[in-house]
Amino acid sequence: MPVPIDDVLNLIGQQNAWRSECVNLIASENTQSPAVRNAQNNDFMARYAEGHPNTSEETRRYYQGTKYIDAIETMAATELKELLGAKQIDVRPISGNNANTAVALGMLRGGDSVIVNSTDGGGHISHAPIGVFGRRIQVRGMALKADGEKGLPLHYWPLAPDKYHMDTPAAIALVEQVKPKLVVLGKSLFLFPEPVSEIAAVCSPLGVPVLYDGAHVLGLIAGGEFQQPLQEGATLLTGSVHKTFPGPQRGIVAANLNPEDEKKYWQPVDRGVFPGSSSNHHLHTLPALLIATREMREHGKTYAKAIIANAQALGAALDSLGVPVEAKEFGYTKSHQIAVNVTAFGGGLEVAKKLEAANIIVNYNMLPGDTDPRSPSGLRIGVQEMTRFGMDTAAMGELAQLMADTLRNKDTAAAVIAFRKRYQTLRYV
Fold it and tell me: How far apart are CA 81 and CA 78, in angstroms?
């Protein structure tokens, strides 16, 4: 007798219908093309493939029956290398955080010093004391503190007065003082490129590897419109392939290492991926990653340009309507994100709830100087998904008006739905 599933299917249907009426501005999300979505429903969902495809006795698969996933994984790796200009790539991590975990497990031990971006300075939680980097470098008896305060040897990059750029001279001095085991660039609230070449120049003579966490901006990197961390001197690049890179929920680690550095840096990362942070690696989503990579090869540059133009336009429009957008003096952003200070409208959590009631989906977020992540002053807004549905800079002006009206307690739900109905066709596929 078949099990009942109608209630489950009903919830799926409700989600699909509701989201087609929503303006989604979550900076860490995207919508996949029909080809990417359809490719994930396959027999690989039930299979295992630990190890590497078609390799030596030491690294070969631990299971038989992998000849077709071997071909797909090899193709995905090869085509992503070409897209990112990398010599080494690992496509087995199942998220960007999982990729960071692999690096931490492979390269760090208790007591090692690391320099990262602080959470209120935009750093991801995986960079924090309670995240994988902080926990990896703990030793028995260490407190979860940062900046070397007689506890965890986790140091924060110094920020320029605007708080959205690094104070590069002070950062160089910090590297020379601390001589860390690893430095981490890249952020979760990520408006502007990092000074990769300057940091790499001081790290290289000290033998300090530079990890660039490109989870949010990987699609912009692939499109050549943000920065090129591997070409600028980063040792390793981690990333998610489901944010500005519109693929399935997975992650990658990439590098561009010579043979000597490959042995020194890549082999530990390889062990950090498997068996360190994963066993089997969600094989059914690998074909989808391969298709998304081909979509980005074809459309990535155009898509990335449109994303950045839309983010800047939305920032300018909101700011002109009296909704303060951060970093105005720098053009608001060079990425897919803008940071909005909504203190005057009740704070990040209350505003996010109010916008959700109007079918505009955002996430509340810490801004520089905030201390409580559960009650921050800001919103982090990303335009990559709505750009993919055809919204342009003019549409960003309309959206800004709807958002400003919502914040001022006007009933905008019907207007938002009507606005969203004009943008139902997915582009860049």
Answer: 5
Indicate if the alpha-carbon torsion angle 331, 376, 249, 14 is positive or negative.
negative
Q: Which pair of structure tokens corresponds to residue 427?
A: 């582009």
Residues 313, 331: Cα–Cα separation, whole Å: 9
- Dihedral angle, C-alpha 187, 190, 195, 196, nearest 10 °: 50
CA dihedral 308, 313, 318, 321 (to 10 degrees): 170
Q: Are 287 and 36 in contact (CB under 8 A)?
A: no
Nearest to 72 by CA among 282, 308, 366: 282
Using CA atoms, how far apart are residues 81 and 361, in angstroms rounded to an integer?
34
pLDDT at 59: 60
Q: Are 93 and 106 in contact (CB under 8 A)?
A: no
Q: What is the pLDDT of residues 200-256, one digit of tens each?
A: 999 999 999 999 999 999 999 999 999 999 999 999 999 999 999 999 999 999 999
Q: Which distant-in-sequence residues (6+ apart) come within 8 Å of 413 by Cβ?
A: 357, 358, 359
CA dist., res. 111 & res. 140, Å (int): 10
Our CA angle for 138, 139, 141, nearest 5°, is: 110
Q: Where are the alpha helices (DSSP H) in 52-157?
A: 67-84, 96-107, 132-136
Buried-state track 349-365, b at ≥16 Cβ within 10 A, e below 16: bebbebbeebbbbbbbb
Contact by Cβ (8 Å): 152, 140:
no
DSSP 8-state code for residue 2: P
- Rounded to the nearest 10 degrees, the angle between the axes of helix 286-320 and helix 67-84 is 40
Partnered with residue 239 across adjacent β-strands are 252
- Model pLDDT for residues 371-399, shown as the tens digit of each residue: 888 889 999 999 999 999 999 999 999 99
Residue with token string 């501005």: 25
Indicate the SS3 state at residue 312: helix
Three-class DSSP labels, 236-280: EEEEECCCCCCCCCCEEEEECCCHHHHHHHHHHHHHHHHHHHCCC
Helices 286-320 and 393-407, interaxial angle, to 10°?
70
66 in Cβ contact with 78 (< 8 Å):
no
Which burial class, exposed, middle or buried, applies to 272 when counting CB atoms under 10 A from its CB (0-12, 13-18, 19+)? buried
